[in-house]
Design a protein that fits this description.
Helix content: 25-40%
Mean pLDDT: 95
Strand content: 15-25%
Shape: globular
Radius of gyration: 22 Å
Low-confidence stretches: none
Number of helices: 14
Distance between the termini: 17 Å
Length: 420
């Protein structure tokens, strides 16, 4: 019998699916990516993509899989009946129709609670409660996140989630329970059972094992969100390690011994075992750079910059009014002037401005009690810009390295290794 010693991670991101098989040393042995199929039924498209990934597995690796983990976009949810069949189309992570029920939510949730957002999982549940016809609402049995629903396609147990996905549903990650104000609601019967990310949920079904040539010993673990999976892939391991994602926006996460939650600054913490993952997301980032420069110009001009020299420019690079972190102000203005005639100096000022936002973000976390930053791992497209990396390191006086892996699939696969 083949050794059952590998883990498969499947990342369901915003635009497609990525998968990776890793060994016990977290080394990738196989990777695969595909776009979501163009189907009118969005959830069915996810399921088709999941099965396409499993069908693409090399036979020798499929037999050696001991664990499977999945991640999904935070706040993407489905309302399902007792058989796990969606009763409506899924509501995606950025769907803000929950705005219509925020007053109702404010009447039952504590002030400044994380769920008091139009895009939170709980706001979406209340929106369904208020808008679905009574017959459909009566059939509802489970509120599930994207990763929960897809994991159940493999293990067959409905109504199970993890405490990363469930944070914005209202789950209390400090006490590992739903708070009393939620448990007393009529809709509390729809809330999923919550496990620690990476905890074993159960074995794959016999039908899945036979269909895809997997070992019957293979087990599915509770999942996580796509952003936390990316953190887990980065190589960050000890308190004081930070991960900065330099994509279209700027996202920072800091591994901390202390929990930090400060909604007034756009900051909240995810639990990570006995530690905390504190951070926030700025509206600044690579999308601002691409408004003014294409990829080739960014690469060419960057190479001519001296990252140790300050420009004297004081930019706050935003595309439009409003910032989330480290300043949480919907009216915070972009600051992109004066623009010098020299494009090289202008780019230098933009890179410098984004780096100062990153620095201010980590400083804000430390001021609020998080473990002080010791080292940064960089993910996202900005990680490829060596000059920007040197500029950021010079500004923050902190070592900066490229993330060990930028694939969330590797991170969610590594969750399963803890129990393999």
């Amino acid at each position: 019998m083949a050794r059952v010693d590998l883990a498969l991670g499947i990342d369901f991101g915003t635009s497609g699916v990525r998968a990776a098989v890793v060994d016990r040393q977290r080394q990738p042995l196989w990777s695969h990516r595909l776009d979501y199929p163009s189907l009118a039924d969005l959830a069915e498209g996810w399921r088709v993509a999941l099965f396409q990934v499993l069908a693409a597995l090399p036979a020798d690796l499929a037999l050696r899989l001991g664990r499977i983990g999945l991640d999904g976009t935070s706040g993407t949810v489905l309302l399902c009946d007792r058989a796990g069949t969606p009763l409506t189309p899924p509501l995606l992570y950025n769907d803000a129709r929950g705005q219509a029920v925020l007053e109702h939510l404010r009447a039952i949730a504590p002030a400044n609670h994380l769920t008091l957002s139009a895009t939170s999982s709980l706001a979406k549940l209340l929106w369904w409660q208020h808008t679905l016809d009574p017959a459909t609402w009566q059939r509802a049995a489970y509120l599930l996140h994207q990763a929960d629903w897809l994991g159940a396609q493999l293990h067959g147990q409905w109504g199970i989630s993890d405490y990363h996905n469930s944070l914005k549903l209202g789950y209390d990650v400090g006490h590992l329970t739903y708070p009393g104000w939620m448990r007393h609601q009529a809709w509390s019967t729809l809330l999923p059972q919550v496990l620690a990310p990476g905890a074993v949920v159960g074995p794959i079904t016999a039908a899945i094992a036979q269909r895809f040539g997997l070992s019957p010993q293979c087990q599915v673990v509770a999942g996580t969100t796509d952003s936390i999976a990316a953190f887990l892939a980065s190589g960050a391991r000890v308190p004081g390690d930070g991960v900065t994602s330099l994509g279209s926006t700027l996202v920072i996460k800091l591994l901390s011994r202390a929990r930090v939650d400060a909604s007034q600054y756009g900051i909240y913490s995810h639990r990570l075992g006995d530690l905390w993952l504190a951070g926030g997301a700025s509206n600044s980032g690579g999308a601002v750079l691409r408004r003014f420069f294409d990829d080739q110009a960014l690469a060419d001009l960057s190479q001519t910059l001296d990252p140790t020299q300050a420009t004297g420019l004081n930019y706050y690079p935003l595309l439009r009014l409003g910032e989330r972190f480290p300043i949480n102000d919907p009216n915070w203005p972009p600051r992109l002037t004066p623009r010098p005639a020299d494009d090289r100096l202008f780019l230098h000022g933009l890179l410098e401005g984004i780096a100062r936002i990153e620095q201010r973000g980590y400083q804000r976390l430390a001021t609020l009690g998080a473990t002080p930053l010791q080292q940064v791992y960089t993910a996202g497209g900005g990680a490829k810009n060596d000059v920007w990396t040197k500029l950021r390191s010079h500004l923050m006086q902190i070592p900066i390295e490229t993330a060990a892996s930028t694939e969330a699939a590797v991170g969610v696969a590594s969750l399963g290794l803890n129990h393999l």
